[in-house]
Amino acid sequence: MGRGESKLGRVAFLLDHGADLNRPDVDGDTPFLCALYGNQTKTGILLLRRGSNPSAVNKSGQNALHLMAIYANVGGFEGLGDVAHHFKGLDPIAKDASGKTPRENFNEKDPPSSPELRRAFEEFMGKLQEARAKDNSDDEEEELFFDAQEAVQP
To answer: Could you tell me the pTM of the whole model?
Structure first.
């Protein structure tokens, strides 16, 4: 790695050379979850596109949505909103080990979130809801197709 190369470039290099993108650390955080802690949106997107498990949960019971609610800035929500379909398997009302949902984590930020950050959070959650709804309707269509196939088979 050259001195001028970015962290993103280093992560891509490690992945190209076999790094396990879903291996958790001692706290149960995968590289993707660590990217969220550091608000490294581009790294998070790279890891998702390379197959990182967005449903990972750390030892504190936090999933990606909890960490985004705590650590993400406006750019983070906007950037990850573009890949919200990767999060469709996450439960937006899942509680972490302290009993809090992602929204509760967001609402308890100290200092309180700015109106701009709240807008970005709500837009991301809306995109997630759309992705989850689309996934559910795709499942229903697939079910109907197989039901129709069974009905016409002799």
So the answer is: 0.82
**CATH code at 73?**
1.25.40.20
Peptide bond before 24: cis, by omega within 30 degrees of 0?
no
Record the tokens describing residue 114, joined without a space. Answer: 């700015």
Domain count, the chain: 1
Tell whether 26 is covered by a domain: yes
80 in any annotated domain? yes
Q: Where are the beta strands (DSSP E) in 10-72?
A: none
The torsion angle over the Cα atoms of residues 26, 46, 100 and 119, rounded to 10 degrees, is: 150
Residue 131, domain extent: 7-152
Residue 42 main-chain phi, psi, to 5 deg:
-65, -40
Q: 74-81 vs 64-71: helix axis angle to the nearest 10? A: 150
Query: pLDDT by residue (tens digit) across 123-145?
Result: 999 999 999 998 877 655 555 55
